[in-house]
Amino acid sequence: MDWLRFVVAPFIALYGLLALLAGPQQWRQGKVSTLAANSMLIVGGLLLVAGYLVWASSQWALWTLAIGLLAMHILAAVNSAHATGRPAWGQQTGRLVVSAVLFGLAYIALQ
């Protein structure tokens, strides 16, 4: 399914770009620490790399995508718990659905 990876890869890259830009923006607003903002930058970059690897049909694409998505979920939950005292489960559930769809489509595209 070559056409599917050309559709899925830009969405993965866009998801990574959103994470990449969210870190500095939240840091400027004083919502997260410098460490959290830098961590989001790294995770966003990892998701951008995963988008490229899916597009290039690399054998490392799914591993990179899984690590990036998992790290993003952990960082988002920790940042949410730090900011409000508890994780925002509604946002975490929505993020999980988007991640599962992206990972599932990437898996299908690379088969």
What does this structure look like?
The chain is an all-alpha fold. The protein has one domain. It is elongated and about 45 Å long. The protein has 4 helices and no strands. 85% of the residues lie in helices and 0% in strands.
Unreliable spans are none
Helix content: over 70%
The beta-strand count equals: 0
What is the radius of gyration?
A: 14 Å
Percent strand equals under 5%
Shape: elongated
Rounded mean pLDDT is 92
What is the CA–CA distance across the termini? 7 Å
Order of helices and strands: HHHH
* Derived structural class: mainly alpha
Total separate domains = 1
- Give the count of helical stretches: 4
What keywords describe this structure?
mainly alpha; 111 residues; single chain; 4 helices
Short description:
The chain is mainly α and 111 residues long.
Layout of helices and strands, plus pairs?
Layout: H1 2-28, H2 34-55, H3 61-84, H4 89-109
Helix pairs in contact: 1-2, 1-4, 2-3, 3-4
